[in-house]
């Protein structure tokens, strides 16, 4: 398994490098007033670690490491999302088309994996079951978009996702996830600050969907499934908090902006590497809490992230950094 993971890392490293060198002109991300980078940098590098992951799945199976929970068809159901994401990195697609694609992929995943269990709906019978399916699909598309929203800082989403998926590989007993962790390590060589390439929508939406699949395919109890959800908090906590604040301020929550906490920390003078390291470190801490204490660890993680957001707000208020609104 370690040999396969090493090969996956190397293929990812080479694939991302090839994309960076050969498709730079077609996938160039030009900085604008809402960007965190100042120089043109190619995007779409996420296709590199996706290629490595899918190439090594058959090899992984050939050595006896079969899928514990998620079948090959579940992973293949992500192909439409990958195609849409790459086209969006190349030629920007309308938001409606992107969301239709996400809903369709979400439905395919739920058909194969089942909904995220919500025991309090059991008393509603068949209606509760349909509500479970609908909320799971909506939650899945939300997770996809949250990972996309948070992909604005060198190494942040890739680093956090590597820790999260490593945790889920152990928690869900799904060894195939180690392949993607290895592929992300190969990608981070190019993406850590100063980034030579971004993962783009193809990579960030794929990672959000994979995290959703990992959460849906739990081998333990319902309580363990809900506890595992807390591992997403470094991503979802910042994203949900920012959406809530922007809605309160009357801003258009669907427009691009620079008011996420990670973006404001950068505006306050933090380097890309420092911001990403804090988020990665927080994810490691949450993984240890959840693995060690289960449900109590998950609740502690939620409280800890809430406190961290309050501390960050207090710190940013002392730095006198104005929020970057999206309605200007």
* Uncertain regions spanning at least 5 consecutive residues: 323-328
Number of domains: 1
Number of helices: 13
What integer value in Å does the Rg equal? 19 Å
Report the biggest beta sheet as strand number plus sense, adding barrel if it closes.
Answer: 2 strands, antiparallel
Overall residue-averaged pLDDT value = 88
Give a quick rundown of the structure.
68% of the residues lie in helices and 1% in strands. The protein is mainly α and 328 residues long.
What does this structure look like?
This protein is mainly alpha-helical. It has one domain (2-319). Helices cover 68% and strands 1% of the residues. It has 13 helices and two strands, in the order H-E-E-H-H-H-H-H-H-H-H-H-H-H-H. Strands 1-2 form a two-stranded antiparallel sheet. Helix 5 (95-113) crosses helix 6 and helix 12 packs across helix 13. The longest helix has 48 residues, at 272-319. 46% of the residues are buried. Mean pLDDT is 88; it is low at 323-328.
